[in-house]
Amino acid sequence: MNGIILFDGECHFCDQSVQFIIKRDPHAYFKFASLQSDLGQQLCKEHDIYSNIDSLVLIEGNQSYIKSTAVFRICRNLKGAWKALAFLQVLPAPLRNFGYDVFAKNRHKWFGTKDTCELPPPEIRKRFL
Predict the structure, then answer these.
(1) Based on C-alpha coordinates, what's the Rg of the chain?
(2) pLDDT, tens digit, for every residue of 6-30?
(3) 12, 117 in Cβ contact below 8 A?
(4) Which candidate among 17, 42, 59, 65 keeps its CA 20 to 30 Å from the CA of 49?
(5) Residue 112 backbone class (left: φ over 0; alpha: ψ -120 to 50; beta: rest)
(6) Phi, psi angles (nearest 5°) of residue 73
(7) Mind listing the pLDDT tens digit for each residue in 26-66?
(8) Residue 113: φ, ψ to 5°
(9) Rounded distance between C-alpha atoms, residue 24 and residue 99, angstroms
(10) DSSP, residue by residue, the chain
């Protein structure tokens, strides 16, 4: 079973986050799709996630995770010290998600948006759905 990460395809920070994950996911556990894509919208609908969500989404099997829970579950599958961040999931979700929401609300202002996506090399391209 692989995890599917749905990300904001217009957000420069989100794009860089996907690149970050790819470099630290040597077993290619994660596949990727933008929230704006037809597949992203379909998966959100299948998992009862509202279509205008302002969050990274992780789908693993029949379960979906958003906001900080998605981030920490992703960290569990990355190589290196990033696995250690998963322990922060013990903090209460409202506290974790408050910080997530502040960041999400400002990410376009802080990091910008993009109109086009760079075409990844073929070995990476197959990880995008």
Answers:
(1) 14
(2) 998 888 888 889 999 999 998 999 9
(3) no
(4) 17
(5) left
(6) -70, -35
(7) 899 999 999 999 999 999 999 999 877 889 999 999 999 99
(8) -125, 175
(9) 24
(10) --EEEEE-TTBHHHHHHHHHHHHT-TT--EEEEETTSHHHHHHHHHTT--TT--S-EEEETTEEEEHHHHHHHHHTTSSGGGGGGGGGGGS-HHHHHHHHHHHHHHHHHHH-B-SS-PPPPHHHHTTB-
Q: Burial level of 33, CB count in 10 A (0-12/13-18/19+)?
A: buried
CA atoms within 13 A on the CB side of 69: 11
pLDDT at 119 over 80: no
What's the confidence (pLDDT) of residue 112?
Answer: 78
Closest CA to 60 of 81, 31, 83, 35: 31
pLDDT confidence of residue 115: 67
- Cα distances from 93 to residues 51, 62, 116, in angstroms, run 21, 21, 34
Question: Has this prediction a pTM greater than 0.70?
Answer: yes
